[in-house]
Amino acid sequence: MLALCAVLSSGCTERDTAMRAPPHPEAQIQPIYVSTTRALDRTGPVFGEPRPVTPNHFRVDISVPPTHEVGQIEWARGVPDAGTDFVVTGTHLYQDATQMAQQVQRSTPGRETMVFIHGYNNTLSEAMYRLAQIRTDFSNRDPAVLFSWPSAGDPRGYVYDRDSVLFARDDLEKLLRALTADPREKVFLMAHSVGSHLTMEVLRQLVLRGDRRLLNRINGVVLMSPDIDPDLFRRQAQAIGKLPQPFIIFTSKQDRALGLSALLSGRKPRLGVVDSPENVKGLDVKVVDFSEVSDGKGMNHIVPVTSPAAVRLLRGLISQSEREGRWMSDFIVLHRQP
Question: pLDDT above 90 covers what percent of the chain?
Fold first, then answer.
């Protein structure tokens, strides 16, 4: 309860925000395409405000500094400097999801697009920078699209966020439909925390619509620290039937944020802390347990992309699976290397 009070009281603290700055010749530019049901003039917390009903679509060029360290987002402290900080160096607005998708396809035709669905208590600025950090640390060159649903961006907004993911289901479906309109195009979904619940709801919604065409365009799914009741996840998975493959769940028993979520949900453990293959028995999913490489950052709620040890191990795991053409095991526990 003391931990919960501490988290809730932090809702009054000022949040970092994306800032513009001139480019630096040694910085790496990450073009991030964004589809969001947020107002573009509100990149920070929006707790208690009405949710916009018209999605916005744009590209933001995020500069990652040459001094960047794996797992970090180097926020500007004072005057932003592209030599030391994450900064925005350019933006471009699109009329709708179709126009943005066409631009994605023109820049990288026939390539798989990664769609990132962020988690609870995220602002638009934080989600954009996080995706740029992930692309940089994993040397990902596929086009990247952020779907930023209207999170309150406030620790006190847990119920608001749970409602917001349901509010955003149709918008995420429309985005995926636009990105796969060309029969050559595929998407890969990476969702974090409550964003995993949104992802599962959209997959289930496609089945209820009888839209297997779009489901077949999804090349794989990663749920990172999923904030979902395991019973609900099993019911969602059963409704979907054949899950996109690979379908991978990243977990950690050290995830303190999911511990608080369980407290708010009647002490029911969340999917992101499963510690045994029995928890997902009968489902065509793979589980990677990051418990032993947790480093305490961010309440251990996004370990796979913030812990340098986890990033190193995960990159090796991905490389090995690509060489062998398959995911090695249904349940993998990562161990910290000496």
Answer: 71
